[in-house]
Amino acid sequence: MSNEETPKTEAAAPQAETPKIKQLFDIRERVKIGLTECNHTVKDAIVKSFIDEEVARRTKATAKVIEQIEALETEARKIKPTYPGYALNGQPIGEAVYTQEQAKAFKENNEKQQKLHNALEKALVDRDFSKILELGGGK
Prior knowledge:
The protein is mainly α and 139 residues long. It has 3 helices and 2 strands, in the order H-E-E-H-H.
């Protein structure tokens, strides 16, 4: 009888291993299916990567344009008119006037600001970032 018990014990061992082997095959099958289906995941990751790069480029260019506007505003505030003369108490006499150079600098400053504001509006309202990228160094 001991001979008969041994084959039963040996037969029982492979049956005990069967669920583990089945799990291993199940895992391998899932990996195989996952790899065949990952094509969409890879494509989505590539698309997301390109989108993220473009968003970063547009963001950087937009920030640079905003900095340029702020710098021009600061520069414009520095252009001050001159008075023709001063009274003894230090009060200016007459109306303040700009010199021809100051008027030209002020006009050029305003034109640059307007150009940047137009590009910013076109980007944020119309979603056309071509001018922002051109002016902000994004190209």
